[in-house]
Specification:
This protein is mainly alpha-helical. It has four helices and two strands, in the order αβααβα. A two-stranded antiparallel sheet has the order 1-2. The protein is globular, with a radius of gyration of 11 Å. The protein starts with a helix and ends with a helix.
């Protein structure tokens, strides 16, 4: 199962930036994210994300 952008937005709605990878994982868990979503977030670099655009860029595989 893949995670769509819409699902990501649902799980991360209301999140305040900047945010760390650990904060993203905790927030997603608290909002009922499933294993595919959590695995995707755990694969992120341990950076701080200052905006939804930065997070989206980190989640988008290079073309």
């Amino acid at each position: 199962m893949t995670v769509t952008g819409v699902q990501l937005q649902e799980y991360l709605a209301g999140l305040d930036y900047p945010v760390s990878r650990e904060d993203l994982i905790r927030w997603a868990q608290e909002n009922g994210a499933g294993t595919p979503m959590l695995q995707m977030l755990q694969a992120l670099p341990p950076d701080q994300f200052n905006s939804p655009d930065e997070l989206n860029a980190a989640l988008t595989p290079p073309s």
